[in-house]
Amino acid sequence: MENTNHDDYIVVKAKEQGVQVIGLTRGQDTRFHHTEKLDKGEILIAQFTDHTSAVKIRGKARVMTKHGIIDTDE
Ligand code: TRP
């Protein structure tokens, strides 16, 4: 895939039980292809890939990226 940098990681830290990190497919078709459930305090470190171009987060979490830190409940 041209001009696609997969080097950066995002970090998601669950601030409550059962936070969902949902991977959305890359390309014309946008659908969920994976859901990862996190317990309170658990951390997921993840990269975007050829298969994943967007991530949706359900629940209270802290999301850390190179763009900054965002809390879903703010
Ligand atoms: N399948 C879409 C794509 O690869 C997924 C996507 C990327 C998306 N960015 C988005 C969907 C922003 C909604 C909003 O482009």
UniProtKB/TrEMBL annotation:
This is Transcription attenuation protein MtrB. InterPro entries: MtrB, Trp_RNA-bd_attenuator-like_dom, Trp_RNA-bd_attenuator_dom. The lineage of its organism: Bacteria, Bacillati, Bacillota, Bacilli, Bacillales. Oligomer of 11 identical subunits arranged in doughnut-like structure. It holds the Pfam family TrpBP. Belongs to the MtrB family. The keyword Zinc-finger does not apply. Keywords: RNA-binding, Transcription, Transcription regulation. Residues 6-73 form the Tryptophan RNA-binding attenuator protein domain.
